[in-house]
Design a protein that fits this description.
The protein is mostly helical and 65 residues long. It has one domain. The chain contains 2 helices and no strands. Helix 1 packs antiparallel against helix 2.
């Protein structure tokens, strides 16, 4: 696993948090909620891709093709 991916996910989290705080201060709570959900979906998509790669590596190690 590349450590850069963890830093990218952390950066996405920080950016989403800042955007949500700005939107909440300007009374846009509904948009802030949507932004946080979109951020969560982006990070989950990255994690699902990583889990898929992990299963492919496990299949290769144990020759389960």
């Amino acid at each position: 696993m590349d450590i850069g991916i963890l830093f990218k996910m952390a950066a996405i989290g920080i950016i989403i948090t800042v955007i949500c705080q700005i939107l909440k201060k300007s009374d846009r709570d509904d948009i802030a909620t949507l932004v946080s959900i979109v951020g969560l979906i982006i990070v989950l998509a990255v994690v699902v891709g990583m889990v898929g790669d992990l299963f492919e590596q496990i299949k290769g190690i144990f020759q389960l093709d």
